[in-house]
Design brief:
The complex is a heterodimer of chains A (about 240) and B (about 425). Chain A is of the alpha+beta class. Chain A has four helices and nine strands; from the N terminus they run H-E-H-E-E-E-H-E-E-E-E-E-H. Chain A has one domain. Helices cover about 25% and strands about 30% of the residues of chain A. Chain A has a nine-stranded antiparallel sheet, with helices on one face. Chain A starts with a helix and ends with a helix. Chain B is mostly helical and about 425 residues long. Helices cover about 65% and strands about 0% of the residues of chain B. Chain B contains 17 helices and two strands. The longest helix of chain B has 30 residues. The chains are: A alpha+beta (about 240), B mainly alpha (about 425). The interface between A and B is large, with 45 and 38 residues.
Chain lengths: ~240, ~425
């Protein structure tokens, strides 16, 4: 290959690379829902230290909103009512049954609409209790990464889509919260809140809420992994002993 | 030796390697990894990779150094020493896509250089009962190049190969040049690897030439060489403190990012023991302090590793074993030990295989671990995503790290070589 031809190839290569780089900068992403109309989402509360919550947030923390009547062992159900996606926003209305003990849900307590901008940097998270949403548009990792958040939020979307919140003492009202609290909210890849934990100092869990339905593959995968590991160890040790 | 003759020797050696079919296959594998990572980068990971952080850090270092640890500038936390950003300044002036491709091209060249350094080291430390031709060495070098951890290293635009290159270069110097001036050079090079990424930070204690002779019950220490090595390694590391002194905000931000930030409590698939413990505490709502767990893990595992190193009965190539223990301690104890970090460990394991007796029983610990790290660990990262709601523990990698740690420890402190040799040798 002579020098001129080589230089020509090198130039073509560099131009292609630059074009690819430029093209990648202008690709726009459309966010979407993972759920369908009438789909039901149920969360259960594994831990709720009501006395501690009363001390931290005052007596009224569970009188309204998404934590209304929250206590340990109760469940909350959302049913997807309508969904609407267009080029600028996503919105969905849900029939919401707030925290109950019994499995007989009865009629819903509220109809609530939630909406997000397609431009994630224009969406905000609630700077009020519970500080994190129960669902987010998908791909959730990218969406939370694009959010322009208050300094109390820290997004970790490297492995699991996670929002960490650090709420300073007296942030909501002069006396509430009465001490610094931390929230870790983990979302599944469908954008549904899969784990919500509220910690006080010393990483003591005061509230632990988790999404109830596990994907079908979780139990067989876990049993398969542990089983296969021990079988492999037993086979290997036997082989070595025979040698 | 002129630069030209060095290049001609390198190309001569690579030509020799190229004659072996497996090496050609390994290079082809590397090419596939490179192409795959470039495609994945442009399609999915354009802004979601580690290189995006390094790239930005280079620019911020030049334009707004006080905000180097302001995490709002990055998609993920920038945690490294401030001087590490220096390495990325040249890239930060290029188009991002082009910079990524050039950076990975450099990673590929580093892989070839790593193979050459490994080859040089193995040729000299190789045990007397090993084959005299180079075929087996080239086979293991090919295994290294085919290693699956390279995929994520390329996809993320990671800097592990720089660390490995500097670790192996310093190891080469320590093994073959005994003069004090070379001890200084070797440790400075190790210090540079720490600047790039603190993965090799826990190698520092193993620079001490300290040995307790169990038979004579006598502690031997080479003060002068130890001091020279410590000065050499701390010189580049402490040069970061010039920046910390000049910009006090940097120091506070560096500490909070690395030791008190919220990141360490998040659930992830790191195979470090510390992460398995914090994941356990997270799952079962056990109150925990991640820094305490880190300090306790480093104290216990690091302490055991260091004592075994000091009490060693084998003097030959002890620095190689010290380095290996140091990396193992880091991988076992730091919060985030990812699949691509294994590229710092596998070259050392390959060299160890050639220093052990050819049919040593200890290979039963080292070899399976090497093959697990090199080919299978990534599968368990995938499995973690299936099991994490119930079982968020990527424990198999941890098991093999402990197995390697045990194998090396046994080699160092076993009384008779018979107990570490196989029956046929």
């Amino acid at each position: 290959m002579n020098i001129r031809t080589r230089n020509l190839y090198a130039c073509i290569f560099l131009i292609i690379i630059s074009l690819i780089g430029f093209a990648s900068n202008v690709i726009a992403l459309n966010y979407a829902f993972s759920f369908r109309t009438n789909e039901e989402l149920v969360w259960k509360c594994n831990v709720c230290d009501n006395n501690k919550m009363n001390n931290i947030f005052g007596e009224n923390w569970s009188s309204t909103g998404l934590f209304e009547n929250l206590s340990q062992g109760k469940k909350m159900k959302w049913q997807v009512n309508t969904t609407n996606v267009n080029s600028t926003s996503l919105s969905a209305t849900f029939n919401i049954w707030v925290w109950k003990n019994e499995d007989n849900w009865g009629s819903y307590d509220y109809i609530t609409e939630f909406s997000y901008s397609q431009n994630a940097s224009k969406s905000n998270l609630p700077i009020a209790f519970p500080f994190v949403p129960f669902w987010l548009p998908i791909p959730v990792s990218i969406y939370i990464g694009e959010l322009k958040l208050n300094s109390m939020y820290d997004v970790d979307n490297r492995v699991l889509p996670t929002i960490n919140v650090q709420v300073s003492k007296g942030f909501l009202e002069p006396s509430f919260p009465s001490e610094k609290v931390f929230i870790i909210a983990i979302y599944n890849y469908d954008g549904i809140l899969s784990s919500f934990k509220l910690y006080t100092s010393g990483n003591v869990v005061v509230i632990d809420i988790e999404f109830e339905s596990l994907p079908i593959y979780v139990i067989p995968s876990t049993l398969g992994l542990i089983g296969a590991f021990f079988i492999a160890i037993i086979i290997y040790v036997r082989k070595q002993t025979k040698k | 030796m002129t630069l030209l003759s060095l290049f001609s020797r390198i190309f001569g050696k690579l030509k020799e390697f190229w004659k072996v079919k497996m090496f050609r296959f390994a290079i082809l594998t590397q090419m596939i990894y490179l192409t795959l990572s470039t495609i994945l980068f442009f399609l999915f990971f354009y802004q979601f990779n580690d290189f995006a952080i390094f790239y930005k850090s280079g620019r911020i270092f030049v334009t707004d150094i006080e905000n180097l640890y302001n995490q709002t500038n990055y998609i993920w936390d920038f945690r490294y020493f401030p001087l590490s950003a220096l390495f990325f300044i040249p890239f930060s002036f290029l188009n991002f896509g082009l910079a990524f491709i050039l950076f990975n091209g450099l990673n590929f060249i580093l892989n070839i250089l790593i193979c050459l350094i490994m080859y040089k080291i193995i040729k000299i430390v190789r045990g007397p009962d090993h084959e005299r031709d180079d075929n087996r060495i080239i086979m293991y070098l090919s295994f290294y190049l085919m290693g699956v951890p390279h995929i994520l290293n390329y996809v993320y635009g990671q800097i592990n190969l720089f660390v490995t290159f500097f670790i192996l270069t310093s190891l080469f110097i320590f093994l073959f040049y005994k003069k004090n001036s070379w001890q200084f050079v070797g440790s400075v090079i190790l210090g540079i690897s720490i600047i790039i990424k603190p993965t090799s930070l826990l190698l520092i204690p193993f620079l001490l030439i300290l040995h307790f002779d169990l038979e004579k019950r006598k502690l031997k220490i080479d003060f002068l060489k130890s001091i020279i090595r410590l000065v050499g390694v701390f010189l580049p590391v402490l040069s970061n403190f010039v920046l910390f002194l000049a910009f006090p905000k940097l120091w506070g931000d560096f500490l909070s990012t690395n030791f008190t930030g919220s990141n360490p409590v998040a659930l992830n698939y790191s195979f470090s023991l510390t992460k398995l413990i914090t994941n356990f505490c997270f799952l079962f709502n056990i109150p925990f302090n991640q820094l305490t767990i880190l300090v306790a893990s480093v104290g216990i595992i690091g302490g055991i590793g260091f004592f075994i190193f000091v009490l060693r009965r084998r003097a030959q190539s002890s620095i190689l074993y010290g380095y290996s223990i140091g990396i193992l301690i880091m991988l076992l104890t730091y919060y985030d030990s990812w699949n691509h970090h294994l590229l710092n460990l596998t070259p050392l394991m390959i060299i160890i295989i050639f220093t052990l007796p050819r049919h040593s029983k200890l290979l039963n610990y080292i070899k399976p671990s090497l093959f697990f790290f090199n080919f299978f660990d990534l599968i368990f990262v995938g499995i973690w995503f299936f099991t994490y709601p119930l079982f968020p523990f990527n424990f198999v990698g941890t098991f093999f790290l402990f197995l390697t740690f045990y194998g090396i420890s046994k080699y160092l402190i076993a009384k008779k070589m018979g107990s570490v040799k196989g029956g046929d040798s």
